[in-house]
Amino acid sequence: MTGLRYVYAVCRPFGAALQTQLTGVAGDPPRLLAHHGLIAVVSHVPEADFSEEALRAHLEDLDWLAGTARAHQQVIDALTAVTTPLPLRLATVFRDDSGVRVMMEEREAAFLRTLDRLDGRVEWGVKVYVEAAPERAAEPAGPAPKPASGRDYLRQRRRQTRANEDLWTRAEEFATRLHETLSSRADDARLHAPQNPSLSGAAGRNVLNAAYLVRRDVSEEFVEMVDRTKDDAPGIRVELTGPWAAYSFAGEATGEGEEGP
User: Fold this and answer.
1) Distance of CA 219 to the CA centre of its chain
2) Distance CA 40, CA 24 (A)
3) Which residue among 38, 154, 198, 213 has its CA within the 20 to 30 Å range from the CA of 17?
4) Which residues, including other chains, have CB under 8 Å from residue 250's CB and lie 6 or more apart?
5) Computed over its alpha carbons, how large is the radius of gyration of the chain?
6) Which long-range CB contacts under 8 A does 255-261 form with residues at least 24 apart?
7) For residues 75 and 30, is the Cβ–Cβ distance under 8 A?
8) Handedness of CA 66, 71, 73, 77 (dihedral sign)
9) Is 201 helix (H, G, I), strand (E, B) or coil?
10) pTM, two decimal places
11) Are 98 and 215 within 8 A, CB to CB?
């Protein structure tokens, strides 16, 4: 099949088979391209969609980007089930197999260092959200009583402000303790910027957005540690995602930013 080469990830050679019927971007099944002690996981994509000019146009097409990202992630997830992949940036494309091998040759030392560091490990994501101010949660159903005077209104506002400040303080202290506890069971950790709710669609204010690099053999214990905290603080929600390929810890070799799934 002709076309450009789309590269999903780099990894060490592995003996396990990828799942049957696995397809990648543009519907083409991924294949393994060996070079020295590394494997690039690649598939063919049409130049009409993945040339430099075409990609610039597609960056404005959110539906196309979402479909490409889903197909890319599907391959990464399949690799994570059988080996430790080093995921590359979305839409990493080369002219042919030779171009992929040149890239692997030039970055071989960095790839090997990072794969050594990530070997046998996966990424878990933990987010903490403040869901609602406590005085609102305690209010009876129906509209709030109208203040009898301006002084009553100011008194209500002060109570609401104090309650909000208390909740934010409790949430930040909770998130700090949780991060310290989880970091003690992880080989590495990354603190990402809090997510904007208007972009993420998640309810509540995000006060912790962290990624943890965890050995597979202690991942069950790590998950149990997170689960035990979920009911510890009223008005505070803890979300766990993963296991993922170690996106947040692959920046040394991929040149990507440290923002996880």
Assistant:
1) 17
2) 14
3) 213
4) 86, 87, 114, 118, 256
5) 23
6) 255/89, 256/89, 258/190, 258/192, 259/192, 260/123, 260/125, 260/190, 260/192, 260/211, 261/73, 261/123, 261/125
7) yes
8) positive
9) coil
10) 0.79
11) no
Per-residue pLDDT of the chain (261 residues; tens, 9 = 90+): 568 999 999 999 998 888 778 999 999 999 999 999 999 999 999 999 999 999 988 888 999 999 999 999 999 999 999 999 999 999 999 999 999 999 999 999 999 999 999 999 999 999 999 986 544 444 444 555 665 565 655 656 666 556 556 777 888 899 999 999 999 999 999 999 998 876 677 788 899 999 999 999 999 999 999 999 887 778 889 999 999 999 999 875 555 544 445
pLDDT at residue 150 in the model: 58
Structure-token match 């990648």, residue found: 24
Backbone region of residue 112 per phi and psi (left: phi > 0; alpha: psi in -120 to 50; beta: other values): alpha
| Token pair 């209010």 in the structure block, residue | 139
Rounded CA separation 91/68 (Å): 8
Query: Of 137, 217, 126, 134, whose CA–CA distance to 169 is shortest?
Result: 134
Q: Tell me how long the chain is.
A: 261
CA atoms within 13 A on the CB side of 231: 2
